[in-house]
C-alpha cells in the first residue's frame, strides 16, 4: 500500500529512542523527510545518522525539551527553515513519574503538566497555521492505554493523558474542514526502554526480578507478550498518511487486547 508519505515533512518529538524513534524510522521508510527532537543531543544525533543510513531521507535533528515552550518554538522554526513546512506532527514525551496520589508533590504535578499536557498543545499551536494555509495536515498524539483503562500507580499519566485526549478530540472538530486530521494512538505494554525501566522500578519495590514483573504484564495481555515498537509504528504511519484522510478524532490502542472495554 502506498501511504502517500513520500516527500511529506514530519516532525516527531522525543524521537531518540523508544516509540518516537520507531515512528520516525517507519515514516522515513515511507519516504517522509524528518524533523526529530529529544533532550539528549548525542542520542538524537546517533538516531539521525542511523535513519539517514537506512532510508536515505533528509533528517534534521534539533536537541530540545518539549516541556519548555521556547524549545518547542525553536524546534518547529528550525524544521520550517530547513524544509519550508511541517505536514505531519507526532507529539510524544517521556512518561511522568510513577506513584500514588499521596506520594507525589505539587512540583511533580506541575512538571508533569508541562511535559505531558502542554507539550502536545504547544507543538500543535506552532504547526497549525501552516497546515491550515496549505489545506492539509496530520496531528497524531502518542498517549497511553491509560486514557481508556487507568493503569495502577500511574496517576499522573492517567490524569494528564486524558486531558490530551479531550484537547485532541475537540481540536479535531475545529480543524477538520481545513483538511487536517487529529488522532491519538495509545501504546500498550511495548518493549521500550521506558517500559523496561518501569518494570525494573516496580519489581524492586516488590522484591522480585524485572523478568518476573514483566511476566505478570504478559499474563494480563491476551496475546501473552509485550508489543514491539515497529508494530506500534505501523499504525502511526497509516494514521498520518494520505490514506487515512477520513479518520479524525479517534483514539486507537495498540495493546495486544489489554483494554477490556468494547470501545
Structure in words:
With 263 residues, the chain is α/β, with parallel strands linked by helices. 49% of the residues lie in helices and 14% in strands. The protein has eight helices and seven strands; from the N terminus they run βαβαβαβαβαβαααβ. The protein has helices at residues 18-29, 41-55, 69-83, 106-134, 155-175, 193-206, 210-220, 229-239, and strands at 9-12, 33-38, 59-63, 88-91, 137-142, 180-187, 251-254. The chain has a seven-stranded parallel sheet, with helices on both faces. Strand 1 (9-12), helix 1 and strand 2 (33-38) form a beta-alpha-beta unit. Helix 1 crosses helix 8. The longest helix is centred in the middle third of the chain and has 29 residues, at 106-134. The model has no long low-confidence stretch (mean pLDDT 95).
> Main sheet?
7 strands, parallel
Roughly what is the average pLDDT, rounded to an integer?
A: 95
Detail the poorly predicted runs. Answer: none
Give the topology string: H per helix, E per strand: EHEHEHEHEHEHHHE
Largest sheet: spatial strand order: 3-2-1-4-5-6-7
Share in helix: 40-55%
Cα-to-Cα separation, first versus last residue:
27 Å
Strand content: 5-15%
Q: Compute the number of strand runs.
A: 7
Tell me, briefly, the overall form: globular
| SSE-based structural type | alpha/beta
**Tally of helical runs:** 8
Calculate Rg over CA atoms.
18 Å
